[in-house]
Amino acid sequence: MKPITETLTIAGKSYGSRLLVGSGKYKDLEQTRIATEASGAEIITVAIRRVNIGQDPNAPSLLDVVPPSKYTILPNTAGCYNADDAVYTLQLARELLNGHKLVKLEVLGDEKTLFPNMPETLKAAERLVKDGFDVMVYCSDDPIQARMLEDIGCCAVMPLASLIGSGMGILNPWNLSLIIEQAKVPVLVDAGVGTASDAAIAMELGCDGVLMNTAIAGAQDPVRMARAMKLAVEAGREAYLAGRIPRRFMASPSSPMAGRVV
């Protein structure tokens, strides 16, 4: 089991924020900038197939409002359905970002559920690690698959809480707890968070961080939701470190009878 630390460390670099955010689905780049700042996040994930970070020199670039000098850019393979496409996409990202090694791998199974295709994910992860990438990987909430990805050399495992963009929250906390208990690398919930309480629960379970996009960008007020998520992640982490009281089937009075004055 990994040691409890005050900062989130991924691939040898430490971060003060345990909230990671996406960069898609905002109404424009200015809203992206403001919401990202409000979230306090330091790692920003970018869908290389959907967001311009230099592929089109004639179009506005996300990097104009989320500069690599201020944030760690985390290229991801959203929209990839096989290992070959995922590996190629991240090799392109490495070229665009001047040799950047930290990436988020996701290989999807189908367009309806966006559930991870684990056989293809495992193949892609092995190839990317051998190619020198630091791989954070979106995966099913299966403890065996998570351990296999860690054994391959992934620097973080990112099990889904529920389907991407569903906002259903954490549907299987028991599996997440099993993954957290065995992991020696950071475990971050990725996908399914809908509101601040979902993020807090993930952190209270012992997750090292939470990654989200739709929950913030799709809110009626994305900037306010970004602030709420920041506070929720911080509160959940504090509660986890504090250690909650055990659940009991009987009442336990706040003011015990023993030692009473009268």
From TrEMBL:
Domain Thiazole synthase ThiG: 9-256
Cell compartments where the protein resides: Cytoplasm
GO BP of this protein: thiamine diphosphate biosynthetic process
Key words, A-Z: Cytoplasm, Schiff base, Thiamine biosynthesis, Transferase
Assigned EC number: 2.8.1.10
Record's GO cellular component terms: cytoplasm
EC category: transferase
InterPro entries from the UniProt entry: Aldolase_TIM, Thiazole_synthase_ThiG, ThiG
Coiled-coil region list: none
Pathway(s) the chain acts in: Cofactor biosynthesis; thiamine diphosphate biosynthesis
Binding site for 1-deoxy-D-xylulose 5-phosphate: 165, 191-192, 213-214
Database matches in Pfam families: ThiG (PF05690)
Oligomeric and partner information: Homotetramer. Forms heterodimers with either ThiH or ThiS.
Function: Catalyzes the rearrangement of 1-deoxy-D-xylulose 5-phosphate (DXP) to produce the thiazole phosphate moiety of thiamine. Sulfur is provided by the thiocarboxylate moiety of the carrier protein ThiS. In vitro, sulfur can be provided by H(2)S.
Protein name: Thiazole synthase
Organism the protein comes from: Noviherbaspirillum pedocola
Lineage: Bacteria, Pseudomonadati, Pseudomonadota, Betaproteobacteria, Burkholderiales
Name of the gene: thiG
